[in-house]
Write a structure and sequence with these properties.
Blueprint: H1 13-28, H2 38-45, H3 49-61, E1 65-68, E2 72-75, E3 80-83, E4 100-107, H4 112-118, E5 126-135, E6 138-148, H5 163-174, E7 181-190, H6 193-199, E8 206-216, E9 219-229, E10 233-236
Parallel strand pairs: 3-10
Antiparallel strand pairs: 1-2, 4-5, 5-6, 6-9, 7-8, 8-9
Helix pairs in contact: 1-3, 2-3
């Protein structure tokens, strides 16, 4: 593509640049190809590097670009459809669950937002189960599952063989509870350092945060906070086959 100078436009300059860059990605670059460095791109389009970064960040948010450690900014492949609700009315860990347990600990340290959902008092114990989800050999999501200790009493006070065995024991005990309902919220967030490492992302990268509340015996028994890669995932809901959607 030739040199393109951006003229005054009614929309923000970075947004217009994002459109120009998106067209260039379609016509001149292939999946996995590394983009020129920021200095060269800024000079090519006659914009400040700050404007360029805003446009690149927006394209990353839309799943068109990926920033990779030690590599640079590359053209991203199409988003992968990830089913958030493949099986209804089941607890985490039920047959067909796509998540894999990593480890678990029993603790009374719970984030305020989760404590509010669980309606716990200071000192109440919960089991914190870490799980991961892999699609096509690539990590796509990390989950923190908080389960009331009183709901899985058989797991409390027992020294597990390993952290992974502890996680499996909590999930197994959870299946014995009667699930009365659940609700789910989805919001855009930024990757925490720990999640970023697990998902092979940079800290602060855009992610989709799915919070699920599980109800049993008239109260919230468990809360799952799942962090999905926003650059590679297209979340799908329900039992029907996923429908491809265009971003942007």
């Amino acid at each position: 593509m030739g040199t393109t100078q951006l003229e005054t436009v009614p929309e923000p300059k970075y947004w217009h640049l994002k459109t120009v860059l998106s067209e260039a990605l379609d016509s001149e670059f292939t999946v996995g190809e590394i983009l020129p460095n920021e200095r060269d791109l800024a000079a090519r389009f006659g914009v400040a590097r700050a404007t360029l970064r805003q446009a690149l960040e927006q394209l990353e948010l839309e799943g068109r670009l990926q920033r990779r450690r030690g590599v640079g900014t590359t053209v991203a492949p199409p988003r992968v459809g990830v089913a958030v609700d493949p099986a209804r009315d089941t607890w985490p860990g039920a047959p067909g669950d796509a998540w894999q347990p990593v480890d678990a600990v029993e603790t009374d340290a719970v984030p305020a937002a989760v404590a509010a959902l669980l309606d716990t008092a200071p000192g109440d114990r919960v089991h914190l189960v870490r799980r991961s989800r892999v699609t096509g050999g690539q990590p796509v999501a990390a989950e923190l599952l908080y389960v009331l200790a009183e709901a899985v009493a058989g797991c409390s006070g027992v020294a597990p063989v390993s952290a992974a065995a502890h996680a499996r024991a909590v999930l197994h005990e959870l299946q014995a509870c009667e699930l009365e309902g659940r609700d789910r919220t989805v919001e855009l967030g930024s990757a925490r350092a720990e999640d970023a490492k697990q998902l092979d992302r940079l800290p602060g990268a855009p992610v989709l945060v799915v919070t699920t509340r599980y109800v049993s015996q008239g109260r919230t028994t468990a809360v799952a906070v799942a962090t999905y890669r926003a650059d590679t995932c297209r979340l799908t809901f329900g039992e029907s086959d996923a429908v491809s959607l265009l971003a942007g």
